[in-house]
Amino acid sequence: MWGTELHHLGFAAALALAAAAAVAQATPAVTDADIERARRSQPTVTEQDIQRARERNRMPSDAELRQAPTPSTPRIDALPQPVTRAPVDLDALARGFDATAGQPALHPNPGPTLLVFISFAMPDATLTRLVDQAARAQASLVLRGLAEGSLVRTVARVQQLIGSRKVAVQIDPQAFDRYAVTQTPTFVLVRDGTLPQPCATGLCVPGDRFARTAGDVSLDYALTHIQRSAPGFSKDAGGFLKRLHR
User: What is the pTM of this model?
Assistant: First the structure.
């Protein structure tokens, strides 16, 4: 029995020795030559290297700092200014006057008056077309009220629409009532010398003193339609058509 145990112990010791020998063979020995090679491969920082780095990245002296220009306070008034058009007269627009010529918007010229009732809810393409045509035909644009309840926003929107064109623009909610305008755009051709008269709703224009048509159409189409549907206004409509096509 003891012989058997000793035999097992001797076998285990042999295995341990064999394992240790295998580890010793797998791990390379580090010699003094290896250490010397590793030391030589590392860069050596000398005093000269440190001095050169100081010279390349030196701090400016007090004298150099005193000579450096001191930044001045920026001049806001010298900054480039955006190109601006002539300002729109807020009071004139609110009163319903031509903001460019100072003439009453509903009657910018002697003779019959052509009113184009518009709103900012209309498509931009339609508004742009009507503004251009109204400027050429010397018609007046009429708005019911302010954009977003703000006169400043209204003026900005009108200026954006009219650009450099000369066209009369009026804010006149009563005009919508006087000519029974219920949709935009609506085109109203008024005879020369027409004046509003008192009525149950305030001031009204007699029905035989104006012709009206509505729809998302061009100004020349509206005038042509008035010529066909209201022959009594054919001559007045023809005058605006001539201006439009000049």
Answer: 0.58
